[in-house]
Amino acid sequence: MSLGACLDRLARLGRFLWSAWAGLAGLCLIAALWQAGHEAYGDFVLTAPLDTIAAAARLLREGEAQDLLALTTRRALTGFALCAVAGGLAGVAAGYSPAVLRLSRPILTLLLGVPPIAWIVLAMIWFGPSDTTVAVVILISATPLVFVGAVEGVVTRDRGLDDMARVFGAGPLRRFAFVSARQISAQLFPALILALGSAFKVAIMAELLANAGGIGGALARARAMLDIAEALAWVILAVAALIVVEYVLIRSVRAELERWREAAAPWGVKR
Amino acid sequence: MSLLELDGIGHSFFGRTVLAGITLRIAPGQIVALVGPSGSGKSTLAHIAAGLVQPREGRITRRYARHAMVFQDPRLLPWATAAGNIGFPLRLTRAPRRARPAMIRAAALRAGLLPEDLGKYPSELSGGMRQRAAIARALVTEPDFIYFDEPFTALDIALKRRMQDLVIEAAASARFAALFITHDLSEAIRISHRILVLDPQGQGIAGQRGLPGAPGSRDDAAVFTLRQHCLNDDPLFAHIDDIDERLRP
Questions:
Q1: What's the CA gap between A132 and A111, in Å, rounded?
Q2: What is residue A216's three-state secondary structure?
Q3: Which one of A165, A167, A182 has the shortest CB-CB distance to B79?
Q4: pLDDT tens, A178-197?
């Protein structure tokens, strides 16, 4: 890699880190509302934000929290990986084949229509309180999102580019790899970000209901002890884990793939 | 011996015949313009000849080694830089990786792109620059046949002239044959060795006229005189401007 490319990458990283101030401002706004709620309703209903953060820090220092976070994150990521692969492959297949799309539409409605809580109960009966239960529930509840994203990507792709590639001698596989895959990914990434968020939510919900440990288990304990500070602290830790995973895993890849979009808007506010 | 032979090509969309009985031959190094009113099926014919559309009937014989195409819209990959777009056919033909940058620069230069434009994305290029990149992409593999599908229709007149000169120069130096689809008679006269006129209803080639001298040797006055002659005195060209495309399927 040349010096210029290195500098370009560093510049983009710097811009990205600098843009974190905007995110921080948004978070501070929420914290202010939270503080107002705390002052209106008192410590028992809503612990102060600073106290909650202190509680979260204490949980992290005491050691057990790190293991629980790792456990939940691993489960969420397993489920997410499964749903990304299954939803992505099925969505691409359905996008290219109208027959598959028609067959899969009612299945999609069915999967979306059954509440995740019902799947949790079923999975609990089938697999017991284990990693499999959590992964299966995530798979079922998040796959439709990824599927729809992939279908949209295939259907809305620019067929003119396909023709262009064909004129220059690309067979179906290379047309897919060089031309269609990039267009599909543009639609797929927002769906993947949604799916990752829902994977964390569903993982914690399944853990709580199936009594399978992890952050969900810790939340269940906090609820039993009516410990608002600890419950909120666990929520903060879970959200922080999601943010870290999302930015490290998905946004970085996406930023790399979508550099040209930034080039399309050379002036003004970067989004 | 001709590079491209079409015999009795016919095509229909949804049961409506748009082309029938098209027979044409293009010799090596020859630029043939195909003119006809809009909606007469010119583009479809080019797409059939290039293998993008399967004809309903007829036979296509391609004796060239490699073809390329310049479309009406540039059709650049939005996520690739100009260099990436120009090099796209090289990836497909598996040209040696090390030789590619030099080939890309050479093709870009012939299409009038500056080296500093090669790192830009299509969204950063103007319309004319994008079409230049599309032309460079067609030239980069040094094809012996190029299809031009109304490539300059969307450009303004000055830009159009410059692009036509570009094609004339490239054809003279690289010796490719070409099928140039256009509905602009002046463009056809400037650029080609021979003009084919498509029947307004797509029922075969209505006729053809050879042009005196080589493309590029005709100055503006000669082009204008030839055009006036064609439009006023030649019955073959009587209908090329007067069709209403809304009557066509």
A1: 18
A2: helix
A3: A182
A4: 999 999 999 999 999 999 99
